[in-house]
Sequence to fold (191 residues):
Amino acid sequence: MNPNHNGHATKKAPALDSGDTIERLMRPYYVQLAKLAFDDANADHGLGVAFDLDNPYVQTAIDHLAKQVRNVTETTKQQIADMTGRAAAEGWSTEQLARQIRQLGVDMSRSRSLTIARTESASGYTQGSISAYQASGVVSGTTWLMGPDSCAICQALDGSTADLGGEFADGISGPPAHPRCTCVLVPIIAE
Fold:
C-alpha cells in the first residue's frame, strides 16, 4: 500500500514489467482461440481431434503465445491488461476488443488498437491450428495462403509449404508474418 495525496493508503497496481501479469491475462483468450482452431480443423479437414487443454501440443502453443505477448511495449501492456481477461470470458471479436481498448480512453489510435487485437488473434488461431494438426497425427506440413490485400512478404510466401511446425522463411513459422497479417495456414494431409 502506498499513501495517496490525502495520506490514505492505496493499493499499488500489479507490476507488468516482467510480463507475468499480461501473460496471465492473455492465456484465457489464447485458450479460446486454440479451441476455435481445433473446431475449425475438424470441420474443415475432418481431422477427428478433440480439443484438450492437457494436450502437450496445446500447452506448448499457449505457452509460446503467452511468452510472445511480452514483445508488446510496456505502455501498451498496461493499457490493454484489464481488457484481455474480459475479452476471453465474453468471447469478443477482435473488433470488439479493439473498440473496448479505445473506449478506455487510452491514448491510442483506432488503427493501433485494431492492429494489436488482430495480430494477437491471428497468432492465437495459427498456434491453435498447428496444435490441432500435430495432435491429429495425419498432417505432415502446412501451406501458406495469403489473405486479402497482402503485402510483398506474404505474396512471396503464398502457396509455399513447410514441414509441420517448420519455417516458411527465416524466422517466419506461420501467420502473422507481421502486424495485421491476414494470411492462414492449411494442412497437408499425409497419405
